[in-house]
Design goal:
421 residues; alpha/beta; Rossmann fold; Immunoglobulin-like; 5-stranded mixed β-sheet; 9 helices
């Protein structure tokens, strides 16, 4: 009997040890959306969900992604590409959730429209602070994006906390202060219908009044709007441009205009390239249903979150680029061939690449180019907008140079990196 008891006890110890070893050797679970409570001051009882990718680099960036009315943080997580791209580029995503009736964010009270005045912006700021302390993030790389009510909140957060956010991207939003109402009203029909028009100075003054005395740098702004939006009508797009160009002290005349995809018109203000102070994308014939596929990658490009290269290489099977330079003493020609190596037609293409320093395009064929130097976009001519599977399009340009006749290091077609032959 004693032997049996000892044997049973010994076997029990062995089982516990084996169980512990199994637990130690089990693979770590994949990243998932987690709800966080007690994250700090939260006057309007917002909920917070957090997505932290497994491949988190040192000092990661933070992105706040704000949902639409009737939505939630988990719904915005599953319905957009920001979490998937976080796995690729290694940043943390915060998903706030509004809890009031209708699940819209407060972008209309005087508390919300002043720094630390109370309501939803304070709770979202607390979420950012929680993540910054817990994960030792890069304080210079905090960004916000949102759709509809979240697009409005993007404008509000950039106004209230210019020292926290480096840039924002608003889908289907309205200018800061446009939705202000008198309690208990929570909906401003005049603003929603695009009937509020102000001068750039008046719009800019609303932003500056939210944080009086602030003299530091202002967040860069990217805004997206469909011309057929019947919920937050299209005139709000132009009013946002007026507001944020004034805030940045730059001209309302675009410094660059191009068409990254068919039906898109992109204008940049105060600079060229992906890091202009203000960037605006108008979508012809599109209603109140943004963001759509591929737009999240454009947001990350504007934020600069793709500059260091992805933690996992993007797919290169969809396109291949041949680039042949013929130089002479002060000039060169470049012949470009883009081949569709995928299985579906590519329509409304745009090819992005960076010319070596000192090169500047003087003329071209088969495509239009903007700007003439640096990081530029080649857009198709009227006769070569579609590239069918296994087919190619050819185009090129003539340029001047100051000694460097080299080739671009990489090419991106509609947001996807191409192989180079």
């Amino acid at each position: 009997m004693k032997f049996r008891r000892k044997l049973s006890s010994w076997l029990g110890v062995v089982a516990l040890v084996l169980a512990a070893l199994v637990r130690l050797e089990a693979p770590a679970s994949a990243a998932s959306l987690v709800e966080i409570t007690n994250f700090g001051t939260n006057p309007s009882n917002l909920r917070m969900h957090l997505y932290v990718p497994d491949n988190l680099p040192p000092r990661p960036a933070v992105l706040v992604a704000v949902h639409y009315c009737t939505g939630s943080g988990p719904a915005f997580h599953s319905g957009t590409e920001f979490a998937r791209l976080a796995d690729q580029y290694g940043y943390i995503v915060i998903y706030p959730s509004a809890t009031r009736s209708g699940q819209c964010f407060d972008v209309y009270t005087q508390e919300a429209l002043h720094r630390d005045g109370g309501s939803d912006p304070v709770g979202i700021r607390s979420m950012v602070g929680y993540v910054q302390q817990r994960y030792a993030t890069d304080p210079t790389r905090v960004f916000v994006t949102g759709a509809s009510s979240g697009g409005m909140m993007t404008n509000v957060l950039l106004g209230n906390y210019p020292d926290v956010f480096a840039a924002g991207a608003a889908f289907m939003g309205v200018p800061f202060g446009c939705f202000a109402t008198t309690p208990p009203n929570t909906w401003n029909s005049e603003c929603a219908n695009g009937q509020i028009t102000r001068t750039p100075q008046q719009w800019g003054d609303l932003v500056r009044a939210s944080y009086p005395g602030y003299t530091g740098p202002r967040p860069r702004m990217q805004t997206w709007h469909g011309t057929e939006d019947s919920t937050l009508r299209y005139p709000n797009f132009g009013e946002q441009i007026k507001q944020w160009t004034n805030v940045h002290g730059v001209s309302q005349t675009p410094t660059q205009t191009d068409s990254p995809q068919s039906g898109w018109t992109r204008t940049r203000y105060g600079g060229t390239g992906a890091t202009a102070p203000v960037e605006a994308i108008s979508l012809q014939g599109v209603g109140h249903n943004l963001p759509m596929g591929g737009m999240a990658a454009r947001v990350l490009e504007f934020f600069g979150l793709t500059d260091g290269g992805p933690t996992e290489p993007p797919p290169t099977g969809g396109c291949r680029v041949s680039y042949v330079v013929s130089p002479w003493n002060t000039g060169l020609t470049a012949a470009i061939t883009v081949t569709n190596t995928g299985t579906a037609p590519i329509t409304g293409w745009s090819l992005e690449f960076t010319l070596p320093g000192g090169q500047a395009i003087t003329s071209g064929w088969g495509a239009s180019y903007a700007p003439a130097s640096g990081r530029l976009t080649a857009s198709p001519a009227s006769y070569n907008t579609t590239i069918n599977p296994t087919a190619s399009v050819g185009f090129g340009f003539q340029a001047t140079h100051t000694g460097d006749t080299g080739e671009p290091a990489a090419f991106t077609l509609n947001g996807s990196t191409c192989a180079v032959s």
